[in-house]
Amino acid sequence: MARKYHVAVQPSIRPYAVVVATFHASSRRPQVPGKFAWCARTAADDKADVPSPLYATARVFKEEAVYSFPFTVPGWHFIRIYLFPIKACDVDLTSATFSVVTDDNVLLHSFTPENKPVMKEYVINATENHLALKFQPLKGSATFVNAIEVVNAPDELITDSALAVAPLGEITGVVHDAYQVLYRINVGGPTIGPANDTLGRRWETDAAYVQTKEAVKDVSVPTSTIKFPDGTSRLVAPTPVYASAAKMADADVGSPNFNLTWKVDVDPSFSYLVRLFFSDIVSKATNDLYFDVYISGRKAVSGLDLSTVTGGELAAPYYKDFVVNSSSLEGADGKGKLSVQVVPMGQDTGRIDALLNGIEVLKMSNSVGSLDGEFGVDMGFSSWLLPIHTGQSFTASGKGGYGSHKSGNTFSSTMGLGRFFSFVEIQMLSKLRHRHLVSLIGYCDENQEMIFLQAPALVWPCRDHGACCMRRLRTWSLSSDPGQLHVAGTCGFIAPEYSVGHKASRETHVFVFGALMLEVVTGQLALRAGDLRCPLLSECALSPPRRQKS
Length: 550
What we know:
By secondary structure, the protein is mainly beta. The chain is built from six helices and 32 strands. It has helices at 239-242, 306-309, 423-429, 496-501, 506-522, 537-542, and strands at 3-6, 19-24, 37-40, 57-61, 65-70, 75-83, 98-101, 106-111, 118-126, 130-137, 143-145, 147-152, 161-165, 168-172, 179-186, 204-205, 210-211, 216-220, 244-248, 260-266, 272-278, 291-295, 298-304, 318-324, 336-344, 355-356, 358-364, 393-396, 440-446, 449-454, 457-461, 468-472.
């Protein structure tokens, strides 16, 4: 039985943020019921390079522990989880394997910590007046936590629209996702600690990410130089981020028209919200600096003139959000690279230069609300990993926003999930290649027509004298009204209880997968129309074998 451990609410300690709760394992309040171990570092451990005393203690649990945080006002909140497997416990925390979830999102799945301090930071849009944070140990293992911090964030931290990079265009619906903060980079400037950020964030330097360092020149101005126009938020990034930048260096090259590039490592199976910060602290006059912005090799902004977008001001803050899906990422061998480039416009538009002040990269939750792996809170799969057996082409009317589950974009998978696909998921499918999966060759979204283009058939070797059997694709239909959800499937794959009750479950998904595996193993079709005695391959597999007459 899960136990609920309430964390005491503390008063605000920052002018623009309310700390809903800060908990660390050595706290004597609140009183924690149930079974747990309280651990503290030994003198020998004190020699370890630990950046904060928050890592000096830990609470260890052998069963699920639930921390409940009450909110006065729902909305965006930072969740910061501090983890360090200290050695002063009976349990070897370096081998602990556990998951951390909320009611809606998976934050960590089957996580085993490294032997070093780590802080995992998330941004969650809470729709209720409380948040439950659940630590779930793997069976036979343990879970632990050193400290938890929950801080409410301003509404403008993440707005509902962003610019998609591929295909290029404005999208909406990003407020419905959960996020993990991967990188906060103060380009051209020093590290910014939590004490100098109104929301307690940490910004690192760009030294580890900038490419061709000799092409970059760091510049800075006093923070008093930065001018915030009316309506510009001071909370999205602290002023020091805008007061430093990287610009083109006076490199010894024949033409100064080269790129300034930064690269970070990312998981290629997720999409990302990339926020770029700008402030023209190098120009002497307005309308004299124009440059292009590329993300993962794709042009995202052409001819950016900061003095125009900031209302004719120099040294004024400006930022722009971009959504980068997995199909746009660089890299090979399953390793993703996300790059940001600023490039002089290359036309007679003023000085040849480009600059960048800051970068934020946030991982976006996938279709099942996970930020770590393909399992959702209810252990459902992310459907883009499943075999897709739609028709050779499929059309649907209507166009929903990014990630919308309330549109006409209603495509279904063989697994009988009966769910909706976002355009980001479609782009993920276009990258997925496996000999047992139907490849999504492409899609079209023009003139209110949406079409899937897929491989015409799926071929695999069978036991029947080395011949090959071909799975012909069938069209799947789904009602465009989510309130009238009706999944149509192929006979032979539908679980008996689903055909009667029309209710999908984990068990019905397993049945479909088993029927598919039977086809692969036996080389026979799931529906054997010519066999009146046993038309369904699944029924034959479940029936007891008949004894041979002697």
